């Protein structure tokens, strides 16, 4: 393995994995949403969850030529006020304590989006304001202030089309605050809704053709979303019968506490390998799995080699994507990487003799 790593170091190449950590399956049988859920749980993992547009495209490829709608795993529960705040950018989870956000009370049911002023205020999503886009690919300029006034959904669509997304997360807000100047009443990427994924994942990605809060018709107490042929989402009565998408996860969370090396051998003997994370999409799926661990940290397949003086994935990939915790600096021999199961699921260095739960990946 070391000669492969040596070659990668010499060439400076990053090979991003084309391997997906889950598979979608289109089931061309007409069932109600609940019966589709039962079918998926019995034969795969669950009704389809969607992390970002990559997943949307993969599902469209599975149902090429589909003329009708199809169920996915997002369902609306309005029997009680269970609205939950989400950041628009996939992979960043809302944490009120960490974000230091004090939204105004009392909260009105129509105030489901947030603007930045002297404070952060929840307001009606149909209001129109300027907004801030975040761009992870623009060198030296992360934030773009858009002077055109739009409602929240229009602002989100603009940012996703022209940049990455609406500004999201406490860290991005703190960075933008330094250059904001006197600009006020700006949309940020914080919203809340009552929609939940069947597998209880906390994915914030929504891809509505027309947002439920702007619909004229009344949403029932329990309605499910559908995936349209063009990729956008709508919703319907859950008792309607439609084809549907299931997903099968390749991730296996092992709750038994083991050292890094013991975890590696366990994964290679019983599955395929310890998990590799080479992009934000994979990070999102792995962190959802890590949430259910018994230990506060879970081992990943990332280790430091003193011989070559670098971090490397046991799948022979260089570290071209990372999510290090702020306090993590430098390197040391006999160190491996674990992911936090809480907060923003950052990576930390730990002596490989520590014992944690771990995540394997199937072929």
Question: Could you characterize what this model shows?
Answer:
With 363 residues, the protein is of the alpha+beta class. The protein folds into three domains: 2-18 and 250-361, Mannose-Binding Protein A, Chain A, CATH 3.10.100; 22-79 and 195-247, Roll (Mannose-Binding Protein A, Chain A); 84-193, no CATH class. It is built from eight helices and 21 strands. The strands form four sheets. Strands 4, 5, 6, 7, 8, 9 and 10 form a seven-stranded mixed beta sheet that branches. Strands 15, 16, 17, 18, 19, 20 and 21 form a seven-stranded mixed beta sheet that branches. A four-stranded antiparallel beta sheet has the order 11-3-12-13, covered by helices on one side. The two termini are 19 Å apart. Residues 1-12 have low confidence and may be disordered.
CATH H-level superfamily of the largest domain? Mannose-Binding Protein A, subunit A
Let me know the number of strands. 21
* Largest sheet, strands/sense/barrel: 7 strands, mixed
**How many alpha or pi helices?**
8
